[in-house]
Amino acid sequence: MSLLGQHTPADLVRRLAHVRWIAGGTGAGKSTLAQSLAERHDLLVYDGDRAERGYVNRCTPQRQPYLSALLRTPLEQRWTGRTADEIFQAMPSLHGETFGFVIEDLLTLPTDRPVLVDDFRTLPRDVAPLLTRREHAAFLLPTPEFRRNALGTRFADPARARANWGSSDHAEAFAKRLARDELWDEEVRRQARELDLPVLRVDGFRNVAERADELAAMFHLPGMRGTTPT
């Protein structure tokens, strides 16, 4: 039995009351904000991108069919031969396949300080039942221009582009990535609106420090290192 199966919903809320969540769209600066908050407020960060590597050995075709299919697909075929909508519909996280792994991991972490989850894959419908306060989760959604600039800079590195898209046409893959991410943003926005969870627009007009201050207040984080907790 998994760790997740050993706990009732009420127990999970209690066990995860120290957890805060940053999710939303790609290229919104979530990891930069998470690092800033961790340094200023002595938080433990759960990095969803790094943690994803550990999901591979735990997934099964029966319980995670979309993730299993994705792992069997060569890089070159993940972004070619399909529309952006087809790629979006095949996302494992859209079907809730990765969130259980996140919870299992969080239950094994120390609870002596707040934990900040930085995870693109977290959807509002998944995290809402676990929140003691609605403002303990924030969904950052970048404007199309902000994302294009952020991801364009990221994938300008040929090695990073190959790691994501293999030897496929990188220009085509990048265009489909942007289109898929727009669909993901729409889904996040819709769910957050229905569940009354905070959505923050990222357009570049606020710097990291200002956004970190906003999130620290929203998350009710303790004070800076060396200060009295608030």
From TrEMBL:
Upper lineage is:
Bacteria, Bacillati, Actinomycetota, Actinomycetes, Streptosporangiales
Q: Which InterPro entries match?
A: P-loop_NTPase
| Gene3D superfamilies the record matches | P-loop containing nucleotide triphosphate hydrolases
Protein name per UniProt: AAA family ATPase
